[in-house]
Amino acid sequence: MRVAIWAALGCAVPIFSGVMAFIFFTAPQSRWTDLFWYSVYVTCPPWRLPENSWSMWITPIANALLYGLAALLISIGMRALKKRRR
Description:
Elements: H1 2-23, H2 31-43, H3 55-85
């Protein structure tokens, strides 16, 4: 269940970033816009994939897979730590 929640969150991150980028498209270059784009690239690495007709669909799916995989690896690691403590 936790992996599915993280995957859904991962899918929502590039959608939210895209909406925010569209809203603030005309914002002047500043530290805040640099900070925004840095946070986009950190929270959504698939955003750097080459632009094509499918990138609007591939980016959220790839980010969902990335977040889901991270959650899966963390949960496996947590289970291993719990077994090791016993």
